[in-house]
């Protein structure tokens, strides 16, 4: 999909979404921020139940033309992130930035819900995109208990090999990686609840015990659940 970018356009590219700039004018400039996949998953873990179809909508609707008021609002948002990043206490900085970025993505989610409610039609068109979205919806429903690609392929009445191929082609990551991402978001969401001990988090996330949870979480995030919890419940 080719889209010209003009003055007052806001472009939002999701992790693993590939883009390229073919040519630029002499007067082209942009203000931007970027987040890595780990931070993106942290952002999503604090937004509640974001439905999977939102991400498919965002992939197709990555460019918005806004008026001067909304442009200045976005530039002010970027300045706020820059200011907080330069002046905030380092102990609390990461969580501060995460909360600001959640506002940005939440605004897009609200717009998505309003747009889909008004149009009353899905945004997924091709057969492969439909398979990928149905897979994502199933993962959102069953990821606490089922991690096998074969389970989801059976639900979709296709082979695991074809499902893996389609998901990789549409999303840029494998079916196994998508399932793991959903589980990681679920764990991070639970870890944000200080009332739950790690054993309770493991149980609610569908793990047999605390050890298996810790192994999985460290494999996919590089830290233990306890270490991650320290980054979100910061104290001196």
Quick tags:
single chain, 236 residues, mainly alpha, Arc Repressor Mutant, subunit A, 2 domains, two-stranded antiparallel sheet, globular, transcription regulation
Structure description:
- The protein has about 240 residues and is mainly alpha-helical.
- It is globular and about 55 Å long.
- The termini are far apart.
- Strands 1-2 form a two-stranded antiparallel ribbon.
- The mean pLDDT is about 85.
- Helix content is about 60%, strand content about 5%.
- The chain has two domains: about 10-20 and about 30-120, no CATH class; about 125-230, Homeodomain-like (Arc Repressor Mutant, subunit A, Orthogonal Bundle), CATH 1.10.10.
- Keywords: DNA-binding, Transcription, Transcription regulation.
- This is Helix-turn-helix domain-containing protein.
